[in-house]
Write a structure and sequence with these properties.
The complex is a heterodimer of chains A (260) and B (126). With 260 residues, chain A is mainly α. In chain A, 78% of the residues lie in helices and 0% in strands. The longest helix of chain A has 52 residues, at 85-136. Chain B has a single domain (3-125), classed as Rossmann fold. Chain B has helices spanning 10-22, 34-42, 60-69, 87-96, 108-125, and strands spanning 3-6, 28-31, 48-51, 78-82, 100-103. A five-stranded parallel β-sheet of chain B has the order 2-1-3-4-5, sandwiched between helices. In chain B, 38% of the residues are buried. Classes of the chains: A mainly alpha (260), B alpha/beta (126). At the A-B interface, helix 4 and helix 7 of A face helix 1, helix 3, helix 4 and strand 5 of B.
Chain lengths: 260, 126
């Protein structure tokens, strides 16, 4: 809570205390018109205090959202003019989804095109090795030897070409990982926005709580129950949660304890 | 052996498809949630179901329950591959009749092991 709002609430509490003393004095002396005037003043002060606080928080929240900006990505995806920053944050997160999706697909494309190259090399090498073994055993006819001689030349050429292809594919996979930098920056900024908004909301709740305590309002709190059926997504900080299992081994242990 | 892979993320479907292909299962079909998976299952051509839990529309656990409640489909082996790792959820999946449970992120070895175990059990039960 900011110092200025603490000061305002302090003033308000002092006003309530002073008003209470004044009110009792007036009632005891029979000045009922004066007493009602005190009650009215207190009620007005309560409203003013609350509305000032809400106004202050609204401005802070608006400022925080307006200040939200991701410079590094602006250069890539272009500046969004006029759009709400929350909408903008949503767009940026969608950009993260697109980037990660594209990187995953490109990487898998590269893997898909590398697997047959590696398999072909393996097959050729195994074939050659068989005949090479026969050569070592001096088990080859001169005609077979001449044929092996040519095949080795072809194999060396294929190996060179395959290595070039694999090299290029591995490099492409490496380059694709650049998404981590860009998406990391976007997520960091969005996280900052959320933290900022949360801070302001906590402030609002704290002020609302104090206003409640002064005005005597009570609210029923509801415990939000999250439905397991809908799923929770990946567990973050699972080390701190005894209800979340940390590894496949723990899952297997649990299932075997259930008779699986 | 025809395998249905259900996951809302196409990259995850592709990873599972590639791993299954390495294990020798080349005949696969895909669906992006339970709602699109059920009609494919009901054609009666699917021998094995691999499903995620957390999906829009119909979730994996709902799909599992629907499969087990369907007289024609209830014997299909179901392997869950999911990021959901709460104790209660795993117990719920077990009670709903799941045949295997793999938590994401997973390894090729873990997937292979669970699939083999499921087939061993099926063969032993015959």
């Amino acid at each position: 809570m900011s110092d200025s709002s603490k000061l305002r609430l302090g003033e308000f509490e002092a006003q309530v205390k002073d008003g209470a003393v004044d009110l009792i004095n007036r009632i005891e002396t029979g000045d009922f018109a004066g007493a009602i005037k005190v009650i009215q003043d207190l009620s007005e002060a309560r409203h003013n205090n609350f509305y000032n606080e809400v106004g202050y928080l609204t401005r802070s929240l608006h400022d925080a959202i307006r200040d939200f900006k991701v410079d590094s990505v602006d250069q890539i995806v272009g500046q969004v003019e006029g759009a709400s920053k929350i909408t903008d944050a949503t767009d940026r997160l969608n950009y993260v989804i697109d980037m990660t999706n594209s990187a995953a697909n490109t990487t898998m494309d590269m893997v898909d095109s590398s697997v047959p190259v590696a398999s072909q090399l393996q097959d050729q090498a195994r074939d050659l090795r068989k005949d090479w073994g026969r050569l070592i055993q001096r088990d080859l006819t001169p005609a077979e030897f001449r044929e092996l001689y040519k095949r080795i030349d072809v194999f060396l050429q294929t190996t060179d070409e395959s290595a070039t292809t694999l090299h290029a594919n591995l490099n492409a996979i490496l380059l694709e990982q650049g998404y981590q930098d860009l998406t990391g920056q976007v997520i960091t900024r969005v996280t900052e926005l959320i933290r900022d908004v949360e801070e302001k909301l906590v402030h609002l709740v704290a002020v609302a709580g104090r206003v409640d305590s002064i005005s005597g309002m009570e609210h029923e709190s509801e415990d939000a129950e999250i439905d397991d059926t809908k799923g929770h997504g990946p567990a973050i900080n699972s080390d701190n949660n005894p209800e979340v299992l940390n590894s496949q081994d723990e899952v297997d242990d649990l299932l075997s304890s259930l008779g699986f | 052996m025809k395998i249905l892979i259900v996951d809302d993320f196409s990259t995850m479907r592709r990873i599972i498809k590639n791993l299954l292909r390495d294990l020798g299962f080349t005949n696969t079909v895909e669906a992006d949630d339970g709602t699109t998976a059920l009609p494919i299952l009901q054609t009666g051509t699917i021998d094995f179901l691999v499903t995620d839990w957390n999906m829009p529309g119909m979730t994996g656990i709902e799909l599992l329950r629907s499969v087990r409640a369907d007289e024609k489909l209830k014997t299909i082996p179901v392997l869950m591959v999911t990021a959901e790792a709460k104790r209660d959820q795993i117990i719920a999946a077990a009670q709903a009749g799941v045949n295997g449970y793999v938590v994401k992120p997973f390894t090729a070895v873990a997937l292979k092991e669970k699939i083999e175990k499921i087939f061993e059990r099926i063969d032993a039960g015959k």
